[in-house]
Amino acid sequence: MSFQKRLVRTVGSAKIAPGSSSEIAYPLLSDWRGFAKRAHDEERVLARNVNRWRRLLHVVVVLAAGLMALAAEGPALVAQAAGRGAPQAQQQIIIDTDIGDDIDDAFAVALALESPELQILGFTTTYGDTALRARLLRRMLAETGHGEIPVAAGPATQSKTRLTQMRYAGRGPAPKPGEPDAVAFLSAQIRMHPGEITLVAIGPLTTVESMIDREPALFRQLKQVVMMGGSVDRGYGAPYADPADGPPPGPDIEWNIVNDIAGARKLFASGVPVIVMPLDATQLPLEEIERGLLFAHGSPLTDALTLLYHEWGQQTPTLFDAMTVTYLLQPQICPVVPIRLSVDDKGYTRREAGAPNAEVCLHSDRSGFFDLLMSRLLASK
What we know:
- It is a single chain.
- By secondary structure, the chain is an alpha/beta fold.
- It has helices at 3-13, 21-81, 104-113, 130-143, 166-170, 182-192, 206-214, 216-219, 255-258, 261-268, 279-282, 288-295, 300-312, 322-329, 366-377, and strands at 91-97, 118-125, 151-153, 197-202, 224-228, 274-277, 336-339, 341-343, 349-351, 358-361.
- The chain folds into two domains: 3-65; 88-377, Inosine-uridine Nucleoside N-ribohydrolase, Chain A, CATH 3.90.245.
- It contains 15 helices and ten strands.
- The chain has an eight-stranded mixed sheet with strand order 3-2-1-4-5-6-10-7, sandwiched between helices. Strands 8-9 form a two-stranded antiparallel sheet.
- A hairpin with a 5-residue loop joins strand 8 and strand 9.
- Helix 1 runs antiparallel to helix 2, helix 6 packs across helix 7 and helix 7 crosses helix 10 (261-268).
- The longest helix has 61 residues, at 21-81.
- The chain is globular.
- The two termini are 49 Å apart.
C-alpha cells in the first residue's frame, strides 16, 4: 500500500475530541488528505496511461515486424505470383453465424475476409431473424468488395434478444428470387467438395441441427466443424480474474450451446471431427488502443466494423468468435486437446469418460491472437 493511501486511511478513521489540539489541526490534516487522495488518483491515471502506451508500442512493433517480413519475402511472393512458386492450397470454409447481436461475429467475418489462406465458399445465418442477419452480411460483403460470396439464411427461430445492428442490416440487399436456404446451400457445397469443407460455426447450432436432421450422411462428408461454444473449466470473466480475488469461478452456461442444446448434442454425436473454442480460451477484449487504430484506419472493411460497433452500443467487445478463424490460420495460438464432451439439460458442457468426441482449446495465446488480428485488419485496403 502506498504512503498516501495509508495516510488517507489513518486520517480518515481518526476520532477528533472537541476542543483538542487535534480539532484545531484537523483542517490542515484534512487538506493533506485531499492532496494525498488526488496524488493517489493521479498515480492510477498515470499507470493506466503507461499501460495504454505500452500496448500501442506493442502494436507498432508488430506492424513494423510485419512490414520487414513482407519486404524480406517480396521476391518470393513475386516469383510465386509469376508461377515460379507452388501456391499453398486454400482451406475451403463456410461460416455459419448469428451476426447482428454481439459484435464479435463481425470481427470473425472481417478476419476471414482478410485471410488469403481461406477460400470462403459462402455464409449461412443461424438463430432468430436469419433473413435480417443475411441482409446484414450481404451489405457488409458488398461494401467491402466481396459481394460475390453467397449468403443463405437458415431456419428462423424465436430469439431472446433483438439484433443490435438492425439499422445497418435493414439497408442490406434482400435475397434474390430462388436463392437456396442454408441447408440446401450447405448440401450443394458438400456434394461439390466432399471431405474438403470446414464449417465454422459461431452461433447457436440451429442451422447445423437442421442439416444433420435433413442430410445426416451428407453432413458427415464435412472435413470438420470448428465452433465457438461451451465452457469446460472456466466461465465468463474467469480467464481475466484478478488472482487477488481468489480461485476463478467454474464453468458457465454458454450462449451458443444453451440456445440449441439439441443441436449441440447432435453435432457431438455426428461423427464429424469437431474443434471447440470454448469460453476458456476465447475471452479476448478489444481494448481502447486497438479500437482507435482500427476505427481510424479508413478502409471499407474497418469502416463497416466501426459502424457495426457503434450500433452495438457498448464499449469493450470480447472477440469470442474470431478465435475460430484464428485457429484455422495459426492453430498454435489455440492448441487443442482431445476430450469427450456432453451437454446436460441446462446447457453446461461437461467432461465425461470415454472416447474423445472433440478437440478442445483450453488456453490461448492472447498476444498472438491480437498480433494476427491487428496485422490483418490494418492491412485491409
